[in-house]
Request: fold
Amino acid sequence: MPKLAVVGQPISHSRSPMMHTAALAALGLARAWTYEAIEVAPDHFAARVRAMPREGFVGANVTVPHKLAALALADEASEAASAIGAANTLSFAGGRVVAENTDAIGFLDALPGSPEGKSALVLGAGGSARAVVWVLLDGGAEVAIWNRTPARAEALARELGGRVAKPSRVADAVSMGAYDLIVNATTVGMGASSNDRAELMSLPIDADALGEKHQLVDLAYGAVETELVRAAKARGAQVVDGLEVLVRQGAASLRIWTGLDPPIEAMREAVRASEWQPKKDPRT
Ligand code: NDP
Reply:
């Protein structure tokens, strides 16, 4: 029986098992394939992954904090994974470990329309920001990068391209409509609770400046809608939330492992089930 898993630490919060189990059921593979969560500490990651093919695993998602290590141990890597410097999807075939980065493809699939010609502002310079910057530049967007620690934004722009947004001017540029696409790739909003309004203040954008002319993608997600998503929706922006990006990266991984068209709607329903609720706009 082919086995799949998500490997990370911590892992109990992951929605991937729920999402992929629903997907396998929708594909009629529930009796043949399984998907489980495996918690592994960094010291044991490489050995654990190397043992997986012998245990019947044909692939794995990799999440925090192992995405760099996943690329490092792979025998082969896609162009995206190599350029981004991280992998979130591994396939085991013929004794080889093949690494892919579906965070990039997933982001692109979730984005309405093409990035070509767009002026994008990416907030963050960590692993997911790298994937977003790479795929946007590859797709023909102009990319400005802001990060809380400016040196990391500079290093990212030097390595992958794009320009560093001047911290003092980012908020004004957003207000003046200089960007049509804004991507939150920071952890602000991660594990969103009903009380994350203050955290949003650490991003250099004024929610009141967002409007119909903006597309907003928030990679972060939590138990409720993030404050950024809520504020952007309330002001008429076109919004993609972190759960949609999660679905799309998962779908891309599933296609790699099974060669089948992923059942997107079943995956969406699974990640949005039960504990996730859109937050009420306090002004309504
Ligand atoms: P990293 O740890 O690699 O990077 C974290 C980033 O967040 C850094 O740029 C960091 O800035 C910034 N940051 C942290 N705290 C703050 C703060 N208080 N104010 C402003 N910036 C802050 O994380 P990842 O890139 O892996 O993940 C980023 C987010 O994207 C997470 O919420 C994660 O859950 C989400 N994600 C969602 C996916 C999805 O499918 N929806 C896929 C992948 C990630 P600094 O350099 O200054 O520390």
About this structure: The mean pLDDT is 92. DSSP finds twelve helices and twelve strands in the chain. Residues 24 and 30 are 5 Å apart (CA to CA).
